[in-house]
């Protein structure tokens, strides 16, 4: 994959000249070579040059992730196709073959009018080697507008215009959409393979929960006292009523001579009247007591309903992390 030392040096010099090909650079020649000092000049091309040099230094130190960050920033500040090739080299070292192929193809496309036939052939051969280490994933979902990410990197929303270029190996495809449950799939993609992935995003439904509510009864202790008194009065009314009926029957069986009742009959008559009056009083009192009890019980305001707490047993949840084991619970 690498260039010879002579070609590599030539490429570095050419890239530097391309970035610096601006009148503003002559003003920044005396500035220190560093991203922070270059930024202070407010000259994007000078900063791009400083970041490019830092990226090359990091590449030589085998800090490929840092080199990629600096080279991409340099390209943002001063876009040139020559940087595309170096970005592709760094991506290849990171084994991000999809990134490398995109960079090589962009290098050939953007620099087609300036590249020699020999140089173009050389890069095309390198791109062909990388092409065998990538595949594509055609992603569809059951709903439009789902955000798609591959290995946690956003790639667009459905429907996607074309399959996604990915490096070979296992890739995680995630789809998310508001109002639906996010879903992920892990697929294994071989070199040159077109893998089709369909993700079904179920609708999120509001959780329904039945709450048992205990409505406090209006019946109180006074209610039971009132009902007890009513029962006692009703019993008294029945007993005295029965006694009055018996005394009345006895009175009918009694006979006397003349116009004046005997003392015994007068006592019986008095007893009948007393028992009848007492039965009436008990009956009236029982009715009044029952009515008052019912009015006082059901005419008052209904107490507020109180949700009933469900009894829950202890819950223990084990947790497993990288190099750790945890246990949480509710008691």
Question: Could you characterize what this model shows?
Answer:
With 331 residues, this protein is of the alpha+beta class. The protein folds into three domains: 5-131, Tetratricopeptide repeat domain (Serine Threonine Protein Phosphatase 5, Tetratricopeptide repeat); 134-199, Immunoglobulin-like (Sandwich); 216-302. It is 51% helix and 18% strand. The chain contains ten helices and eleven strands. The strands form four sheets. A four-stranded antiparallel β-sheet has the order 3-2-5-6, with no helix packed on it. The chain is rod-shaped, with a radius of gyration of 49 Å. The two termini are 62 Å apart.
Write the layout of secondary structure elements.
Elements: H1 5-20, H2 23-27, H3 35-40, H4 44-60, H5 64-77, H6 81-93, H7 97-110, H8 117-131, E1 134-141, E2 147-150, E3 153-157, E4 164-167, E5 169-176, E6 183-189, E7 194-199, E8 213-214, H9 221-253, H10 263-298, E9 306-307, E10 315-321, E11 324-330
Parallel strand pairs: 1-7
Antiparallel strand pairs: 1-4, 2-3, 2-5, 5-6, 8-9, 10-11
